[in-house]
Design a protein that fits this description.
The strands form six sheets. Strands 1, 2, 3, 4, 5, 6 and 17 form a seven-stranded mixed sheet that branches. A three-stranded parallel sheet has the order 8-9-12, covered by helices on one side. Strands 13-14-15 form a three-stranded antiparallel sheet, with no helix packed on it. Helix content is 30%, strand content 15%. By secondary structure, the protein is α/β, with parallel strands linked by helices. A hairpin with a 3-residue loop joins strand 13 and strand 14. Bound molecules: flavin-adenine dinucleotide. The site of flavin-adenine dinucleotide has 36 residues, from helix 1, helix 2 and helix 13. The site of flavin-adenine dinucleotide (FAD) has 36 residues, from helix 1, helix 2 and helix 13.
Length: 541
Amino acid sequence: MSDRSDLDVVIVGAGFAGLFMLHRVRGLGFSARVIEAGDGVGGTWYWNRYPGARCDIESMQYSYQFSEALQQEWEWSERYASQPEILAYANHVADRFELRPDIQFETRVQSASYDEPACRWTIVTDRGDALSARFLVMATGCLSSARIPDFPGLASFTGPTYHTGRWPHEGVDFTGQRVGVIGTGSSGIQSIPIIAREARELVVFQRTASYSVPAHNGPIDDDERRAIKADYAAFRARNLQTATAVGSRLPMGETSALAVTPEERQKVYEERWEQGGLQFLGAYIDLLIDPNANDTAAEFVRTKIADVVGDPELAARLTPKTVIGCKRLCVDTGYFETFNRDNVELVDVSETPIGEITAGGLRIGAARFRVRCHRVRDRFRRDDRRAAQHRHPRSRRAVAPGRLGCGPAHPSWPRRGRVPEPVHDLGARQPVGAHDMIVSIEQHVNWIADCIAYLRDHQYAAIEATPDAQDAWVDWVNMIADFTLFPSCNSWYLGANVPGKPARVHAPDRLSRVRREVRRRRREGLRGFRAVAGCDLAGAA
Ligand SMILES: Cc1cc2nc3c(=O)[nH]c(=O)nc-3n(C[C@H](O)[C@H](O)[C@H](O)COP(=O)(O)OP(=O)(O)OC[C@H]3O[C@@H](n4cnc5c(N)ncnc54)[C@H](O)[C@@H]3O)c2cc1C
C-alpha cells in the first residue's frame, strides 16, 4: 500500500468498476487508491454469498472485454457462473493486473469535501484517514447496499436472521430447521429451491409474484467455448446488438408479436423457453413497448407456471398479473417446482402485509406465524451514496449529458446552492438494471478515465455538465422510457423499493444505441460541458 496521501485519484469500491478504474488510471500515469469496505475484491459478488447466488447473464459475456489475454485465459465452467466462480474471477483480475497494492480494504469512506481553491478532495474514512485527491470516483455500484426492512419488532426476533446481501462467509446450514424467507425477487428465487432442499420446513412470504424463466444451466460445451474464443470480439458485437447484451443464443426478433399467428408465437416462445434465460424477452421487437404484445409473452409464462405447479390455487398465487419484463425478469432453476414440495408453504402478504416481527416468528394481520425464522431478504437500495454525503437529487439526476458524470469538481455549484459532485460510475439515469452491467461499467470507466486525462492534458481543474445539456439528456432518457413499458410498474429500476424516493427511469434503450449516442456527443468534444480552469496543476501527473 502506497503511503501517499496526495493522490491523483481516489476510487471508492473494489467491485468490477473500481478494479477496472484503478487499472485504467494507473495506465494513464495517475497515482490512485481504491478504498473498499469489504476485506476482499468483487463488490456484489463479495457480499452476496447466499445459496444459489448466480449471474443471469451468460458467463462468457459477463466478463471484462478490455484485455484479450484475460478473455482467452479465463475458463468459465458453467453457462451461468455461480457467485464463487465470479468472485474467483474478480480475484484473478486483481492479481493478474497487480491491483492489490493500491487497494485499502476494510475501510469505509464516510465523507468527502471539496476544497475549491486547491481543487482537491479530502476523503475521510472510518479508520480516521484523511486522503487528499484531485479526483474522486464513486465506483460504489448500484446494488451494493443491503436494505434492511424496517419491520416493527425486528430486533426482538430471537432466532438467527440473514440478509442475502450480507451472507456469512462460512455459509449457513439449514438442515432440519424451520426457515422463513421474506421476498420473492431474484435473490429469493435463486435461494428458495436450495433452502427448501435443506430445511425441514420452509415458509415463503410473498408480496409480489415474480415472472421467471428457466436458466437451463449446465457446463459450457468445449466446442462452444472454443468457437467464442476464436473470435471473442464478434461474440461481444453480436450481443451488443440485442436489447440487453445478455449473451443471447437466438437473434433479437424483428417483428411485432401481434404480426404473427398465435401458433407461430407459441412456437417462438417455446423455442426461447427451451433455450432458457433472459433472451426470452427478445422474441419480438415490441414486447417491452406494446402492452398487448407483452401480454402474449406474459400469458405464455403464466401457462407454464400453471403447468408446473400442481395445485391450481397455489399456481394462481404464484402467477404475476402484471406486465412481464418491466421488473427485471428472473432466471431460475426449479423455482416454481419447489412449491410442489410438502415442506414448502407460500404465504401471500400482498393484501395483509407483515405487521410485526415477534420473538418467535411474525404477525400478518390477525394471523401469527411461529417461525424460527431465517430471514432472506432480496431487496436492495439503489445508489449507496450516504457515505459520501452527496445525496442531491438534482445533481444526481443530471450527472452529465452523456450520462457519464465527469464532474470531479464543480466550482460554480456551491454558489448555486449545489454541492460539488464526484464522478459516479453506474450513476443516475444510466442504462443499469436491464443490461449486462459489465458492458456498461467498461464504457463508463473508459469515459471517466479519458475525461480525467483530458483535464490533466489541458490543464483544467474540473469539468461540469451545463444545465441545458443535463436537461437534454434527462429528456432523452424520459422520452425513450415513455415509449416503453418500464414506467408501468413499481420496480427497483425506478427506485420504487426505497420509500419516498422519487421515481426516475434509468436509460432503458438498447445499449448499442446508448453507446452510439454517447460516442456522438463525445466526437463533438466538450459540447454540453464547461471545462473549468483554476488551479496550479504543475504537480499533477
Ligand atoms: C444478487 C445480485 C445479482 C446480480 N446479478 C447480475 C447479473 O446477473 N448481471 C448483471 O449484469 N448484473 C448483476 N448484478 C449487478 C451487479 O451489481 C453488477 O453487475 C456489478 O457487479 C456492479 O459492479 P460495481 O463495481 O459497479 O459495484 P459493486 O459490485 O456493487 O461494488 C461496489 C463496492 O463499493 C463498496 N462500497 C460502497 N460504499 C462504500 C464506501 N462508502 N466505502 C468503501 N467502499 C464502499 C462496496 O463494499 C462494494 O464492494 C447483480 C447484483 C446483485 C446484488
